[in-house]
Design a protein that fits this description.
Three copies of one chain form a homotrimer. By secondary structure, chain A is an alpha/beta fold. Chain A contains seven helices and six strands. Helix content of chain A is about 40%, strand content about 20%. The first copy, chain A, starts with a strand and ends in a 20-residue tail after the last helix.
Chain lengths: ~170, ~170, ~170
Amino acid sequence: MKVGIVTVSDRASRGEYEDRGGPAIEEYLAEVLESPHSTAYRVISDEQALIESTLVELCDQEDCALIVTTGGTGPAIRDVTPEATIAVIDKEMPGFGELMRTVSLRAVPTAILSRQTAGIRGKALIVNLPGQPKAIAECLDAVFPAIPYCLELLGHAYPETECARWQAFRPKR
Amino acid sequence: MKVGIVTVSDRASRGEYEDRGGPAIEEYLAEVLESPHSTAYRVISDEQALIESTLVELCDQEDCALIVTTGGTGPAIRDVTPEATIAVIDKEMPGFGELMRTVSLRAVPTAILSRQTAGIRGKALIVNLPGQPKAIAECLDAVFPAIPYCLELLGHAYPETECARWQAFRPKR
Amino acid sequence: MKVGIVTVSDRASRGEYEDRGGPAIEEYLAEVLESPHSTAYRVISDEQALIESTLVELCDQEDCALIVTTGGTGPAIRDVTPEATIAVIDKEMPGFGELMRTVSLRAVPTAILSRQTAGIRGKALIVNLPGQPKAIAECLDAVFPAIPYCLELLGHAYPETECARWQAFRPKR
């Protein structure tokens, strides 16, 4: 299984700022994913067209089963990751954003400013995460238990996971 | 009052699988609706154009006040019930899907994969339910207390309900 | 800082009904906003084109940093405030509507009928509130802790607030 990781940040893409979101996602995956997997990692600026073409490339050329973005989900003028995501997906999955905001709200009231969403393009699941490394693990803990079964429904082999904090759910047939 | 029930399932529509969602909805309505009502029941395949034309027929020709669908709300390629619903409604009602996912999440983490929504077409309320019979009652228990008042706001007679688990709410004028 | 307050109500705009939503918002702002502010107050009918042009004028001509609407968020045929809002914003902020519905659900099950949303137009934050004065304070208490930081992210001076029931949150840099 291949996983795409996309850090969306003007400053990180110019090297003015060390990307901490992408590595936080890579570490998380290394911790919880038992099945062998490779990652494709991109650091790009907050340009909607570039985010869209990066997501399309990771889905259509790189055959990623799962693509996780970090950054660009806030209200500021340069924050356009959700718009880019919605532009390239076939189906939106509103439950991911709802649950991540609900979980982040327990920590900070500004969680409602995060516009993150998720969706399906072809056989790939794309999930937006917030930019803060601390919020990344919190959000992944909330939604990851549903991801293996989602990938199976999309036609991929069921990825095995192991985590002390949660257990993936797979309905009995 | 007329209620439309639409089971969306390739296998059930081909007779390969007994529809259990539609009958579960019929039983639920028979249990809770005190006001006289009739039902129009359809079992159709997961074809977006067919789901749309069925919803339009039940609204515009059959004059259903309420239309409940079951099935086709997941992430798989053939799951297009929310898209068909959004295509035929005048107004989306995001609170229905949000609440149903919140309630289903207490049972299974994969509840976030359900993309169900609700909306208004003319004077009809259309509500998507998940496909699993167990989840159907759970979701209806969550949203039904708001349905009688919604139908009244849409210009229908207020339907009386009786249920041990919940009470419909009607604001005082 | 300038705040726009828009009451959307056919009856209030014709003078058949005293507007209580707009004054409830003004009182709320007077209570919690420590920074000096002025308000622009409009009472208009439930006409989508008029709601849109009023929101545009308050954003683009009046330079309001925050615009709060009340009314027109239900399922009835004349309720079109969310549609007018979505038509004029650059970015939708789904977390506002989700949280307000969650909070209102603790009081009444019909909270799921409220279709309110929020979004950004240029440098202005537009937030829909329900029509009931009681629900207005409840909803503002839920979302206001995130508003000062949101306005700062949009390029405004950070507005100081003081309230016994909540504290605004501003992440450390």
